[in-house]
Amino acid sequence: MSTHHEVVVIGAGISGIAAAIKLREAGVEDVVILEKADTYGGTWRANTYPGCACDVPSNLYSFSFAPNSDWSRVYGNQPEILAYIDGVARDRGLEEITRFGVEVLGASWDAEVSGWHLDTSDGEITARFLIAAAGPWNEPNIPDLPGLADFPGEVWHSARWNHDVDLDGKRVAVIGTGASAVQFVPQIQKQVDALHLFQRTAHWVLPKVDHPVPDAEKWVKRHVPFFEKALGAIEYAAMETVGLAFHRPKPLMHGLQKIGEAYLRAAVRDRELRAKLTPDYLLGCKRILFSNNYLQSLTKPNVEVHATGVERVEGTSVVGSDGSTAEVDAIILGTGFHILDMPVADLIRGDDGRTLAEHWAGSPEAYQGTSVAGFPNAFVVLGPSLGTGHGSAFAVAESQVAMITDAITTARSQGWTRLDVSARAQAAYVEEVQAALTGTAYSGASCHSYFIDANGRNSFSWPWSTGELVRRISRFQPTDFEITADETVEVSA
């Protein structure tokens, strides 16, 4: 295969797929996707734990250009979502431009040729434009716990589920109580002899309005014009109401919290256990979790909730920060991902030779969450400050891809060799976002979440509506970029 391409896309998840499809539709044919795994899907390929599903309605959690009328449930599960993503990629002919099993080991900007030089597991590749679409839910966050490496039993992260281990009759410790644990804990609780849940921080859990989609509804979606769009509009409005609560905590989020409190009282009758499961922060500070069986599973006699973090592992004992211990045969880590310290940031070197991670110094930032000053002709999809807390990653990715596609096609038509967002435009954008986050649920008192970076700043959350995100992020504004033109290229009208 060729070692030079006009556009190289890193990652074959939803954002990489969207970028490749839209660029090709716009006439940019020389695109290649580099994917270290052996198939499409990104996080939906990697996460195969029991109960894995989405928290966004399926009608919204899909490509706008590839609607699916056959979702089996209101909220899709992992196998179904993966099949959908894989199907879209193959139906659009991306197999011919995807190089599976190729890992990017490093990428650096070459000013002499105004392009990118990539070192991969399959040799060197050069590109005019680089799109980093590895995403923030790519690399599991493994806690540095003393003694964990010496644990004699099986240890795995939820994103690397060990399906070879039979949990029947086992004593299992689960460390972490985030979105993944809320889904897999009720599943394994039915199998294990004892489940010890180590919960450093309680999370708010709301009921999930989920059910199988009747065949009649599927038929109507396929045959009645506009029905599917109308249903999507209703679901979008409901999700945006939740989004409005994030941005105006009083009184909206306080009202939603009352629902959470009532649900907790109904699901957990034991006062001592309920006290352990009651958060001490306003709903919305952390990711809102949805489940119809998580809280209920914690009331079962084979479950013990340790309302503490883990201090260390000693032999077969997991020792909590409060001194409590649990003798276990296996440890499952539900400890999330490297969200704000994405590994890809350590691989990409900009105009001054420093990595993206070195530029960010613990606080990721990008103009429109997409372009970083000092990294010409490069774009990040699902980048900093674009997390909505209630909306679909598909909407975010497609908005960014629209801007990226506009930027690349404009550069081609105008004969521009280098596009580098100005430091001024980037700083102004970041300042505006940070100012808008003040007073939102994300920045409430006693709020410690993965939204907050190493320097104490919220570098994850988007402070406005999804509609505003689509409006703002989709536009390429050349005046915000420092542009170098090739004077030998004839500029089109």
Write up this protein.
The protein is of the alpha/beta class and 493 residues long. The chain has helices at 14-25, 43-46, 78-91, 179-189, 215-223, 227-247, 249-267, 271-276, 294-297, 356-360, 393-414, 423-437, 466-473; strands at 4-10, 31-35, 98-100, 104-110, 115-120, 123-132, 154-157, 171-175, 194-198, 205-206, 289-290, 303-306, 310-314, 317-320, 325-327, 330-333, 348-349, 378-380, 416-421, 481-485. The protein has 2 domains: 4-139 and 338-485, FAD/NAD(P)-binding domain, CATH 3.50.50.60; 148-333, FAD/NAD(P)-binding domain, CATH 3.50.50.60. Strands 1, 2, 3, 4, 5, 6, 17 and 18 form an 8-stranded mixed sheet that branches. The chain has a 5-stranded parallel sheet with strand order 7-16-8-9-12, covered by helices on one side. Strands 13-14-15 form a 3-stranded antiparallel sheet, with no helix packed on it. Mean pLDDT is 93; it is low at 489-493.
How are the SSEs placed, and which strands pair?
Blueprint: E1 4-10, H1 14-25, E2 31-35, H2 43-46, H3 78-91, E3 98-100, E4 104-110, E5 115-120, E6 123-132, E7 154-157, E8 171-175, H4 179-189, E9 194-198, E10 205-206, H5 215-223, H6 227-247, H7 249-267, H8 271-276, E11 289-290, H9 294-297, E12 303-306, E13 310-314, E14 317-320, E15 325-327, E16 330-333, E17 348-349, H10 356-360, E18 378-380, H11 393-414, E19 416-421, H12 423-437, H13 466-473, E20 481-485
Parallel strand pairs: 1-2, 1-6, 2-3, 4-17, 6-18, 7-16, 8-9, 8-16, 9-12, 10-11
Antiparallel strand pairs: 4-5, 5-6, 13-14, 14-15, 19-20
Protein name: Cyclohexanone monooxygenase
GO molecular function, one term: monooxygenase activity
Keywords: Monooxygenase, Oxidoreductase
